[in-house]
Amino acid sequence: MKTVLVLVESVNEYLPILETQGFRLILAPTPAMRAEAVATRGDEIDAVLTRGPLGFTADEMAALPKLGIICVIGAGYEQVDLPAAEARGITVTNGAGVNAPSVADHAMALLLSLVRDIPQADASVRRGEWRKVTRPSFANKRLGILGLGAVGLAIAKRAQGFDMQVNYHSRSPKAGVDFTYCETPLALATACDFLIVATPGGSGTRHLIDRAAIDALGPEGFLINIARASVVDTDALLDALQHGRLAGAGLDVFDDEPQVPEALKTLNNVVLTPHVAGLSPEASRGTVQRVADNLLAFYAGKPVLTPVYS
């Protein structure tokens, strides 16, 4: 029986999927439990289940002599020390695409609620007011998507249902899509009314949306981030929101979660959610099933389904 160290805290309801496949679990969802498990039970652990922001370090890998595979739920794996894993011959997998429908739904929910001013309208009614504000519609608006992976494609599909024009930027143009490719993030921001960030985090995408891109989006533009906070320059974003150089922002991710800048909380042109875009019963079940499938393939000597590398 193989033993999996589980560092994630959001899919407990679906962990029996792993147990029914014959895996023994060590649950360590807090930093203290994680440190204790690595220090005292390292010889037992064959696999690790983590998520991008939680990651797994070189020192932790070194403490687990039997570790053969690290499974990351979700697409991002930015805090997993990939060079250390590669040096040890440890396979790393992710959950790319599994929660894409849920994340895309949430991105559109943030966009709709932000542009149509739903939170402020709701609050006004609850206060006994009858506040009517004219807000933009969506037909014929230009939607920019930064990152056209599984999530970005799912967002684009939903945007077409609102009769929006879709532009995108990714590392290279995608074959087989009818959307307009922009050469740089700045060009994308210049060419759109609404911008949704859907690219992975990590050093390679840090501050792709910088002050220049935010200013290019402009005082009538709206920004949605359901990816990683590091992709957007938070200081530049906050300054633009405070001074009317950006119409609004919908954010599901933050630089120092669960801490959220107080200045963001005071603004009435933002919608904030606690990194829940990828959470749905369907996504959680599918995510854990993907982990199970990767583990079963790995221990059967077969190729894993979604390797970061193997």
Topology record:
Elements: E1 3-6, H1 16-20, E2 24-27, H2 31-40, E3 47-51, H3 58-62, E4 69-73, H4 82-88, E5 91-93, H5 100-115, H6 118-126, E6 142-146, H7 150-161, E7 165-169, E8 180-181, H8 185-190, E9 194-197, H9 211-217, E10 222-225, H10 234-242, E11 248-251, H11 262-265, E12 270-272, H12 281-299, E13 307-309
Parallel strand pairs: 1-2, 1-3, 3-4, 4-5, 6-7, 6-9, 7-8, 9-10, 10-11, 11-12
Antiparallel strand pairs: 5-13
Helix pairs in contact: 5-7
List keywords for this structure.
2 domains; 7-stranded parallel β-sheet; Rossmann fold; 310 residues; 35% helix; single chain; 13 strands; alpha/beta
Descriptive overview:
The protein starts with a strand and ends with a strand. Helix 4 (82-88) links the parallel strand 4 (69-73) and strand 5. It folds into 2 domains: 3-97 and 280-309, NAD(P)-binding Rossmann-like Domain (Rossmann fold, 3-Layer(aba) Sandwich), CATH 3.40.50; 100-272, NAD(P)-binding Rossmann-like Domain (Rossmann fold). The radius of gyration is 21 Å and the shape is elongated. The chain has helices spanning 16-20, 31-40, 58-62, 82-88, 100-115, 118-126, 150-161, 185-190, 211-217, 234-242, 262-265, 281-299, and strands at 3-6, 24-27, 47-51, 69-73, 91-93, 142-146, 165-169, 180-181, 194-197, 222-225, 248-251, 270-272, 307-309. Helix 5 (100-115) packs across helix 7. It is built from 12 helices and 13 strands. The strands form 2 sheets. The chain has a 7-stranded parallel sheet. The protein has 310 residues and is of the alpha/beta class.
